[in-house]
Write a structure and sequence with these properties.
heterodimer; A: mainly alpha; Arp2/3 complex 21 kDa subunit ARPC3; B: 79% helix; 0% strand
């Protein structure tokens, strides 16, 4: 779990818009890249991977507030472009369950999409370095590293939202001030997010989750590579 | 997993929200979500949340179940609130209420609107691959739910999940996910193939394609505008901000009277 479970209305508008814009650009590029792929094959695969991600994401491991993502599995099986499309679909559907704000779907897609992207290329790299027999280690390691990086992106996003709270929520002057000239925003909220305590909590809680997801990814990929090796991209190629 | 229940509620409900068109319900959702985003006032957010619970009562669906489904994000919002804790309960309350109210708004939309109808509204602005992906994903979730039931039964029967053997359990559970993926893919491929044979060309037929409004649509929109209007009023006018406690009181009264009506009249 590296995506933002931040409710609607906490992050500044410009950051939310930037997330949507970036998602739209990457989606456009991904769709362009996958145009040559056969639609009959990719739609069912996107459907089942997305559905599997939804099922897994809606089961929280409560004590550590974690849920598995399977985004690296999506990256390995679908490839980065199709995985990004799949992740957008997943984020859109789970937002309908109220799982994370609807406005942060763009940012969520970027963060989780980065996980799939990094996971895919790391998996390829480890397969090339360690060898094809080590599919379990390659996928597990790729998942853990991808999760660490994507969680760092998440912390970065939250930090970015904190850069200038006065500007972001419009406390003084300028256009944003129009918005809040009479609003009684609590002082505590104006102070913004304590990035250190946020990063500490997130990193401590998620450490166990990364390991768990790494192990699950390794076993899933091992199983799929045995039963349907054609579904794993490098072997298909 | 509540997807099957949500789907059942959406297809079998008979309330005014069920009868309203998907497009107008999306407008209602957008208005309420905008209110939640714009408001940072604890009592106002609490008022919005109670109003949404009142609307949930009006849907004639099991309210406690709907609230439970919508409470799921609160686990993560709580973690977020703890992570940025600075001693203010008000601030933590605002974060948790924003999560709860936004989630309840979305859940109200999906428990009263079948997914294909929601997809149909957003389809024109989506590329084909995403629109089809949304539909096939939705269908695949149900395929997976059936397969998951079978898998869990067979894992339990064959001793695949046993106490204190954590690594073995994780290995078996992961292989189960792999099995779901492979079987689910086969099913999904067959399903998509059959759809194509039956003439599917990327368009999902919805029930309510015309934009004309009926009284149910008007009522949904009115509630949306009422919440949005009061929120905007409290943001821009300081005098109105003091009314947020009255908003809370009125919404609580509406909730109590709706419960009484539901309990004794319906």
């Amino acid at each position: 779990m590296s995506h933002l479970h931040i409710p609607d209305g906490i992050l500044p508008g410009w950051l939310i818009m930037a997330g949507w814009l970036l998602t739209a650009l990457i989606l456009a590029f991904s769709i362009y890249r996958t145009k040559s792929t056969e639609l009959k094959r990719k739609i069912p695969l996107i459907g089942i991977i997305s559905a599997l991600m939804i099922v897994c994401m809606t089961i929280p491991i409560v004590p550590i507030a974690y849920h598995i993502n399977l985004s690296v599995i999506a990256g390995i099986i679908l490839g980065p472009a199709l995985a990004f499309i799949s992740i957008f679909i997943v984020d859109l559907i789970i937002a309908m369950f109220g799982h994370g704000g609807i406005t942060v779907v763009g940012l969520n897609t970027v963060v989780v999409g980065a996980e799939a992207f990094i996971g895919f290329y790391l998996f390829q790299l480890f397969m090339a370095i360690i060898g094809r027999d080590s599919i379990m280690w390659s996928s597990g390691l790729a998942a853990v590293i991808a999760l660490i990086i994507s969680t760092s992106i998440l912390v970065g996003v939250v930090y970015t939202s904190h850069i200038n709270p006065e500007f972001v929520i419009g406390i003084e002057g300028g256009h944003p001030g129009e918005l809040t000239k009479n609003a009684d925003i609590p002082n505590e909220l104006i102070r913004g997010i304590n990035i250190k305590s946020f990063a500490k909590t997130i990193l401590v809680l998620l450490g166990i989750g990364w390991l768990l997801e790494g192990i699950i990814t390794a076993f899933v990929i091992k199983y799929v590579s045995r039963v349907r090796p054609d579904l794993i991209l490098p072997q298909r190629a | 997993m509540d997807v099957a229940i949500i789907d059942y509620y959406a297809n079998h409900g008979k309330s005014f929200l069920h009868k309203a068109k998907a497009f107008w319900k999306i407008v209602f959702t957008a208005l309420v979500i905008s209110s939640i985003i714009l408001s940072n006032e604890f009592y106002m957010l609490l008022g919005i949340y109670i109003s949404l619970v009142t609307v949930a009562v009006w849907t004639r669906l099991p309210v406690s179940r709907i609230i439970t489904i919508a409470a799921y994000p609160a686990i993560f919002a709580l973690i977020f609130a703890i992570a940025i804790w600075n001693g203010s309960w008000l601030r933590a309350g605002v974060i948790i209420l924003k999560a709860l109210a936004a989630a309840l708004t979305m859940v109200l939309l999906i428990v009263t609107t079948p997914y294909p109808d929601v997809f149909n509204v957003i389809r024109p602005i989506m590329p084909r691959i995403i629109a089809e992906g949304l539909f096939v994903t939705y269908r695949s979730v149900f395929i997976l739910l059936e397969l998951t039931d079978e898998l869990i039964k067979s894992l339990k029967v064959r001793g695949g999940i046993t106490r204190r053997k954590y690594l073995r359990n994780i290995r078996n559970f992961s292989s189960g996910i792999g099995l779901l993926l492979v079987k689910g893919f086969d099913f999904s491929e067959k399903f998509y193939g059959m759809m194509n044979v039956r003439g599917y060309g990327g368009k999902i037929s919805g029930q309510n394609t015309n934009m004309g409004m009926n009284r149910n649509d008007i009522l949904a929109i009115l509630i949306g505008f009422l919440i949005f209007g009061i929120t905007i009023g409290t943001i821009y006018t300081k005098e109105l901000l003091q009314l947020s406690t009255y908003v809370l009181l009125c919404s609580s009264l509406a909730l109590v009277s709706s419960f009484i009506y539901k309990q004794f009249v319906i």
